[in-house]
Amino acid sequence: MEGFVVSLVIFAAIFAIFALGLNLQWGFTGLINFGQVAFMTIGAYATVLLSLRGVPLWLGALIGAVLAALLGLGIGLATLRLREDYLAIVTIGVAEMVRLIAENEAWLTRGTFGLQSFPLPLATWNPNWLGRSLMVAMLTAIAGLAYWRFWRWLRQTVKSIPPAHLTNGVALSLGYLLSLTLLVIGLGYASSTLKQLGTVPYWLLGVLLLGAMVALVWFYVWLGALAKARIPAWSNSLGTVAALVCAALGLWVYGYSASALYHYDRNPSKAGLMLISVVLLAVIFWALERLVRSPWGRVLKAIREDEAVARALGKNVFAYKLQSLAIGGFLAGIAGSLYAWQLTTVYPDNFQPLVTFNAWTIVVLGGAGNNVGTILGAAIFWGYQTVTRFFLRDVIPLDDARLGAFRIMLIGLLLMVLMVWRPQGILGNKDELTLGK
């Protein structure tokens, strides 16, 4: 279980950094970039190729991120004067061009054979008890700051709920979530039992399961809308209960993560990468929060809302867009370095367009224009990806290839429900949506 949790934390942190770059470009600036994976590809390949030639890992990762930022500048200089839809098309093309270069230029990237056996950060480090304790302390400090911020949000949210409605709202929200969880578990258990018994044809079991899932989702969406109309402070109560559940799961994850760091010798490369990923995520989040709350960030929001107004006020819209694209590319380059270290082998197929759309899923899920929402979206997305990879195998009557497609279809269904129920995302602001304007 410890290795499972460590891998989950690493992937969630990497894709949180990756999606934070996209959130800066789209959520704060309004740039529709469907080629974010191109920057990750540059960062990953540059880091690995330089490290194989003896360049220190930290320097290789920095150079990879800078090269990704330069690619962002190049794309921006060529495309930022285009309309949003043309920008999206061009960025998809650039991402595929970068991937195909990595696949075909074997003299540089080893092509489809990929890159293996490259150095990994902290893989050969053997810390004593003091070093392990310091690593646990760093993780604890970051977790403590996160929970302190959560506590401030929770206290403010609870204050917004009238005391007369607080108890009833929280109790009903708890019942709503608990009953949904039990029904999903019961549905999975029934399907798993029928699959093992083999009394129902697989095609019929699949149809029945899909119908039951659609009916369950529709019923709980309807029930939630009914509760919102009739129960005062329903949305805040439901959000409070869901946040408390997530906080409890976070403590569970923290326990295993701290144990992995203290028993560092069990898996040095993964434990070290987990700490690096979490620390980098914390630093990047802090820096981005400072940036988007500064006058520079307010100009980005003004460009997102109406760039003609920002231009009329004397702002160089093109330069601000260029900076946003370059910084987002820099962050994706850092994520690419971490992604390469996590995979331990780098192939061109690791950087399919689906990677970009995973980042879009994360941003939409958490809420555009909200950095905390992006991190929450990454945690939920990778929690879903990891759990369903094992849970659905015993429930869904499909082979591995079809099961992967089904998991993508399922998260698409959940996103559609979210767009109906809460189009701004979990923590997003409805007034800051940038699509459909």
Automatic annotation (TrEMBL):
Q: How does it sit in the membrane?
A: Multi-pass membrane protein
* Predominant location category: membrane
Q: Where does this one sit in the cell?
A: Cell membrane
One GO cellular component this record assigns the protein to is:
plasma membrane
**GO molecular function terms noted in the UniProt entry:** branched-chain amino acid transmembrane transporter activity
Keyword list (alphabetical) reads:
Cell membrane, Membrane, Transmembrane, Transmembrane helix
> Does this UniProt record's set of keywords contain Transmembrane?
yes
Q: Which residues cross the membrane?
A: 6-24, 31-52, 58-79, 86-102, 129-148, 169-190, 202-226, 238-259, 271-288, 325-342, 362-384, 404-421
Name of this chain's protein: Branched-chain amino acid ABC transporter permease
